[in-house]
Amino acid sequence: GDEDPVSAENTLAQLAEQENVSPSEMADAILAVDPNTRAQVEMVSEQRLREVLAWSGSVIANDASARDPENDPPPNRSRHPRAYGTFARVLTHHVDDGTLSLPETVAKMTSQPARALGIQDRGVIAEGYYADIVLFDPQMLADTATYTNPRAYPEGVVHVLINGEFAVRDGELLPDVRAGRVLRSGSNGD
């Protein structure tokens, strides 16, 4: 509930310090109360992340199952903010800091993953290809998802087309658009 001290606002170290116990003792105490407790673990430093992003063989992807916040059941703490904010964060944080250029970042999000997975007719804007397109305003783009509000859509996304059909138009999510297809390696979704 709202009074639960084990929340997105507290790290395990902070909770342990408040209780004057070790982090491992705190983890044991939390799990004794609720064995289904989830934790968000950060395992990559910003410097290491920059190195990986700059490597020519890396691609930018997300394995989260981002869902409509209106239809995604609570608790909020079960979602990582990158479920909604991965691409906006990389486009702003790592392009702005000089780790990547905008064109190479877009390629790492589009054509390179499609090529690596053998997905045909996607990943670039070309005649005969499926029109999966995101238009965004680089000056307005912002990752708004946080650990305390992980289900926040990024700002600055103007249009999203999936298979040539608008899913977002003028920054507004269109209801009941079901233009996506399940893609498998080496396919185009047909």
Overview of the molecule:
The protein is an alpha+beta fold and 190 residues long. The chain has helices at 12-19, 23-33, 46-54, 82-96, 102-109, 111-116; strands at residues 133-136, 157-162, 165-169, 172-173. It has a four-stranded antiparallel beta sheet, with no helix packed on it. Strand 2 (157-162) and strand 3 form a beta hairpin. The chain is globular and about 65 Å long.
Compile the SSE list and pairings.
Blueprint lengths: L11 H8 L3 H11 L12 H9 L27 H15 L5 H8 L1 H6 L16 E4 L20 E6 L2 E5 L2 E2 L17
Antiparallel strand pairs: 1-2, 2-3, 3-4
Helix pairs in contact: 1-2, 4-5
Characteristics:
alpha+beta, 30% helix, 190 residues
Strand order of the largest sheet: 1-2-3-4
Count of runs of 4 or more consecutive helical residues: 6
Helix content: 25-40%
Q: Biggest sheet: strands, sense, closure?
A: 4 strands, antiparallel
Order of helices and strands: HHHHHHEEEE
Strand percentage lies at: 5-15%
Structural class: alpha+beta
Low-confidence stretches: none
